[in-house]
Amino acid sequence: MLRRTIASLKSSISLHITEEKDRICPKHIDSVITFVLGGPGSGKGTQCAKIVETFGFKHLSAGDLLRKEIVSDSEYGSMILDTIREGKIVPSEVTVKLILRELESGDNHKFLIDGFPRSEENRIAFEHITGSEPNFVLFFDCPEEEMVKRVLSRNQGRIDDNIDTIKKRLKVFESLNLPVIDYYAKKGKLHRINAVGTEDEIFEQVRPVFAACEKKATIT
Length: 220
Ligand SMILES: Nc1ncnc2c1ncn2[C@@H]1O[C@H](COP(=O)(O)OP(=O)(O)O)[C@@H](O)[C@H]1O
Ligand SMILES: O=c1ccn([C@@H]2O[C@H](COP(=O)(O)OP(=O)(O)O)[C@@H](O)[C@H]2O)c(=O)[nH]1
Description:
A ribonucleoside 5'-phosphate binds at residues 67, 88-90, 115-118, 158, 169. GO terms for molecular function: ATP binding; CMP kinase activity; dCMP kinase activity; UMP kinase activity. Catalyzes the phosphorylation of pyrimidine nucleoside monophosphates at the expense of ATP. Plays an important role in de novo pyrimidine nucleotide biosynthesis. Has preference for UMP and CMP as phosphate acceptors. It catalyses: CMP + ATP = CDP + ADP; dCMP + ATP = dCDP + ADP; UMP + ATP = UDP + ADP. The structure is a single chain. This protein has helices spanning 2-11, 44-55, 62-71, 77-85, 92-103, 120-130, 144-152, 163-186, 199-219, and strands at residues 32-38, 58-61, 110-114, 136-141, 190-194. The radius of gyration is 17 Å and the shape is globular. It has nine helices and five strands, in the order H-E-H-E-H-H-H-E-H-E-H-H-E-H. The protein has 220 residues and is an alpha/beta fold. It has one domain: 3-Layer(aba) Sandwich (Rossmann fold), CATH 3.40.50.300. 54% of the residues lie in helices and 12% in strands. The two termini are 30 Å apart. Strands 2-3-1-4-5 form a five-stranded parallel beta sheet, with helices on both faces. The structure holds adenosine-5'-diphosphate and uridine-5'-diphosphate (UDP). Adenosine-5'-diphosphate is lined by residues 38, 40-46, 150, 154, 197-199, 202.
């Protein structure tokens, strides 16, 4: 049943997800889902690696999943490349489909979804397609000058790590991603992390969030 639903998602990329019948209830329904948000270069990927090491989560970087599509033979490759180069947001259906595939694979039921959702439209598409909400959300709060400095010295050969694209990404972050962060703050699901400091100092703010989650899981 689930395979069929994913197959139909694959074949209908322009679907409009507005009705109950479009939802699916897959095995990740009992999973722990954490969204990891913050501007470009705020340190999301760096801290996710530490969370994986310490708490055994599976790390799904939406950006990495999209970049993999570019180098695979995907029909969306050139569209994704153009979108990333412009610092814009890839259509929700494409990104959610890639995330869903990862949520459905393997035995790990604890997920860090890094760099997604980037807009209210992304958030709503995820909730409708998966029928799930995150258990909690981390927000790495970092000043723009620091983010620019970090991205420019990241040195991974990314087509979007240049000053022109960074400026566009920061604008998109402010106008489209901050409303998502506000949404989760109002729902009481947001953990704001001061993203300035050494990697270890920042992780000491992150650790208690996951330690509390583990404790709760042991009690229930
Ligand atoms: N606390 C920190 N202080 C200084 N540089 C950092 C810190 N955390 C990460 N970095 C560096 O900044 C760059 C961006 O970090 P990254 O984790 O890739 O950010 P994001 O995933 O949010 O885009 C990387 O080169 C990384 O090594
Ligand atoms: O859900 C996502 C995640 C990423 N991106 C695109 O991928 C780029 C890089 O995102 P990533 O999270 O890898 O990097 P960051 O912005 O944190 O440096 C973004 O600017 C977007 O163009 C997207 O469209 N949707």
